[in-house]
From TrEMBL:
Function noted in UniProt: Catalyzes the transfer of a formyl group from 10-formyltetrahydrofolate to 5-phospho-ribosyl-glycinamide (GAR), producing 5-phospho-ribosyl-N-formylglycinamide (FGAR) and tetrahydrofolate.
Lineage: Bacteria, Pseudomonadati, Pseudomonadota, Alphaproteobacteria, Hyphomicrobiales
Metabolic or biological pathway: Purine metabolism; IMP biosynthesis via de novo pathway; N(2)-formyl-N(1)-(5-phospho-D-ribosyl)glycinamide from N(1)-(5-phospho-D-ribosyl)glycinamide (10-formyl THF route): step 1/1
Protein name in UniProt: Phosphoribosylglycinamide formyltransferase
Signal peptide feature range: none
The organism of origin for this protein: Aestuariivirga litoralis
Encoding gene, per UniProt annotation: purN
């Protein structure tokens, strides 16, 4: 079975990256994780990727004079690795429309809210402050509108009395780890079909 060559972009511990790598161990999973890229050299997730035999690369955004120059270096590396799909897993950089257009329909992101609610940062704090009864997470295709692309999968989590942003985040993260591999499998299957 040919699998879709996938890059995972991280900035930190990469817990969603780990969930994707674990899912891709299955022989029938349609995506193969070929590289993990971070914009931060101290991202803990790089150690996990390297320990699992996955190519890692640090492309430090601070080393480039502009967002466009950083993204050009990132794009060049991904293409050199023959990447077909990109999964953002805690990648804390807003990507430009120009970069997205080069990978149109092939970039996934996981977001810790039930989109379109609570786009951007501090999702759990905002949900609790609003008295929301339900929170959750969404996997969506990346478009130039921040957290605005088509939603592929969502999972709901009840907001419990006494929840803090941290306790809510922990329960949402469990669901992120469950649905992100499902969404990547969907995208990978679509890429494989387009190849044939």
């Amino acid at each position: 079975m040919t699998r879709a060559r996938t890059a995972i972009l991280i900035s930190g511990r990469g817990s969603n990256m780990m969930a994707l790598v674990e899912a891709a161990r299955a022989a029938d999973f349609p995506a193969e994780v070929v590289c993990v890229v971070s914009n931060r050299a101290d991202a803990k997730g790089l150690e996990f990727a390297a320990a699992n035999g996955i190519a890692t690369r640090v492309i430090d955004h601070k080393a480039y004079p502009s967002r466009e120059a950083f993204e050009a270096a990132l794009d060049q590396y991904l293409r050199s690795m023959h990447v077909e799909a990109i999964a953002l897993a805690g990648f804390m950089r807003v990507i430009t429309a120009q970069f997205i257009s080069g990978w149109d329909g092939r970039i996934l992101n996981i977001h810790p809210s039930l989109l379109p609610a609570y786009k951007g940062l501090h999702t759990h704090e905002r949900a609790i402050a609003d008295g929301a009864k339900v929170a959750g997470c969404s996997v969506h295709l990346v478009t130039p509108e921040l957290d605005g692309g088509p939603v592929l999968l969502q999972a709901e989590v009840s907001v419990l009395p006494g929840d803090t942003p941290d306790t809510l985040a922990a329960r949402v993260l469990e669901q992120e780890h469950r649905i992100y591999p499902q969404a990547l499998a969907w995208l990978a299957n679509r890429i494989i079909e387009d190849r044939e």
